[in-house]
Amino acid sequence: DRLTLICPTETRDNPRSHDVAEKIAASNGPIGRVEYVDVRQSMANGGGPACLRLRVVLTDDELAATNPAMRMTDELHARLTVWALRWYREELRPADLADPALLEESRAALDELTSILHLGNDFYPFQR
Predict the structure, then answer these.
(1) Is the Cβ–Cβ distance between 19 and 48 less than 8 Å?
(2) Could you read off the pLDDT of 12-36 as tens digits, one per residue?
(3) Would you give the DSSP letter of residue 6?
(4) Are 32 and 2 in contact (CB under 8 A)?
(5) Helix, strand, or coil here: 1?
(6) pTM as predicted
(7) How far apart are CA 88 and CA 46, in angstroms?
(8) Where are the domains of the chain?
(9) What percent of the chain has pLDDT over 90?
(10) Is there a contact between 119 and 67 (Cβ–Cβ < 8 Å)?
């Protein structure tokens, strides 16, 4: 019932990043396991966001078990665009990191995002 974090194999091969990924999965948060994917060849050919798009072919049963609200549609794209324009800051200064308002702003953004993606109102620990 928990999410899977997809990481490049370099994450697994680096002790510090591997430890972070595994601690995330071992926590009581929404991520329950880590899968490592070899993207070295793709990255060696120039990398970029397109190289990190993982395509997974699902059976009909697997597709039925997924959250349909998370399938990219024109409507979801429009809602996410509005969300990003509302919540993504143009800049983040070091002083902002000490401002408790940033935490509240971040939580409000995540509340709205979990609503858009139909993840429930208890997805993150702060929502419980």
Answers:
(1) no
(2) 999 999 999 999 999 988 999 999 9
(3) E
(4) yes
(5) coil
(6) 0.59
(7) 27
(8) 1-56, 67-128
(9) 64
(10) yes
SS3 32: strand
Note the pLDDT tens digit of each residue in 110-123.
999 999 999 988 88
At position 100, the amino acid (one-letter code) is P
Q: What is the pLDDT of residues 36-57, one digit of tens each?
A: 988 777 666 666 655 556 567 7
* Cβ atoms of 54 and 6 closer than 8 Å: yes
Please state, in angstroms and as integers, the Cα–Cα distance from residue 123 to each residue in 7, 28, 53, 57, 127, following that order.
21, 11, 24, 26, 7
Tokens of 42: 């793709």
Q: How far is CA 117 from CA 40, 74, 78, 83, 85, in A?
A: 31, 14, 13, 12, 17
